[in-house]
Amino acid sequence: MGETIKLGDVEFTVNEITTTKNVVEEFGSNTQGTYLLANVTVTNKGNETITTDTSF
After folding, report:
1. pTM of the prediction?
2. Rounded to an integer, what distance in angstroms lies between the CA atom of residue 48 and that of residue 44?
């Protein structure tokens, strides 16, 4: 992988993408479908503080 997307002073690097059908730990027992899991590194190259959130 290693694809990097730059947005202003912030860089998002995709380290790995996988799929799963089991997301019970996060969303409960009634989940259906296939889910895309992205392992991403976020790098702040600027001087301003940024906030990232993984709860989508």
Report:
1. 0.68
2. 8
